[in-house]
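User: what does the whole thing look like in 3D?
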Amino acid sequence: MKMYREWLKIRTKGPLNFIDITEKVQEIVEKSKISNGMVFLNSMHNTAAIFVQENDPTIFEDMKEFFERILPLNRKYHHDYEGNLNATAHLKTNLIGCFLALPVEKNKLVLGTWQRIFFVEWFEPRERKVLITIVGD
Amino acid sequence: MKMYREWLKIRTKGPLNFIDITEKVQEIVEKSKISNGMVFLNSMHNTAAIFVQENDPTIFEDMKEFFERILPLNRKYHHDYEGNLNATAHLKTNLIGCFLALPVEKNKLVLGTWQRIFFVEWFEPRERKVLITIVGD
Amino acid sequence: MKMYREWLKIRTKGPLNFIDITEKVQEIVEKSKISNGMVFLNSMHNTAAIFVQENDPTIFEDMKEFFERILPLNRKYHHDYEGNLNATAHLKTNLIGCFLALPVEKNKLVLGTWQRIFFVEWFEPRERKVLITIVGD
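Assistant: Here's the predicted 3D structure for the full assembly of 411 residues, as structure tokens:
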């Protein structure tokens, strides 16, 4: 078994910018030359998340409205140093997650027909970093 | 270190069908002959989830009512091509998760006393697939 | 590739006790002598969670109020054998998670500038257990 590791840098455009990073992760899997194993994705941030979902903007519209209902911007938060967008971003990250473990077979990501890998910015336009680790043979 | 991989097929009965897959995962761990390592579970679906919980129907009743409160079926969703059950299923999956990484020791799953592995269908009766990967010695 | 495994015991003080376990996990990573790989954390409990977040009490105050809004203690739950704190604890665990997969490089945890590893008790003061597994070279 061997390991390959590479940083993926993501420039986000602002809050609720959903970015499909599947192709970029697949490129790194290919560079690893690892045929069969697992790929781990680790976001280095508390106000951005990483998850698997269909690439359909209507789902992200629903997620946006859902979070505005359960974590409305117009209420008082304790973590208010950087505003309510930041306060709610922290909580959204813990609900959606900041890491993934996905299978690799024949040097390709194994995903369901409608599954894609997304990085979502909850806060401001930022330069974000995800560490990609592939372990296998 | 070696790797063993097998597909687990799950026939679901409809929305909110919580299926205890612990024994099936344990059988695959045994077939792997891997004594110590990790087992990864990856669901290939955006409208079904996989998670660890006690096998107690009252918890699933509470989860059902909780999701009906925060993601009610009788409101307007943007992702409405396949109805509101489908729209809310997408969001529930991101809240609960579609993968697990669990320890294996002495060729057995290491779980807490009350922990079991569940697959939950949020949408329709379907043939679902989970890829099980065991890595270790 | 090799593997190192150790139990981390955590004595919690009661509900909403957020415990920063980053240093303890780092100590176990060092004992493993594994330079590059992944560390897996598995909580053995259904009423306590494990997650990555900034070490800032105001975020935990927000999380507490958020959960009291979406999972209020003063309503009827089906899983009522051990009270509503227990019933809601089960659901909070599935929303926040009970495992992590994090990268290790040069025998150190790779975390973002503001990322720390937290164990949170949702229920009673308890002796809790997290299995730490490090895999790598």
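In plain terms: Chain B touches chain A at residues 1-3, 5, 40, 42-46, 70-71, 77-81, 87, 90-91, 93-95, 97-99, 101, 129, 131, 133, 135 (CB under 8 Å). Residues 13 and 125 of chain B are 5 Å apart (CA to CA).
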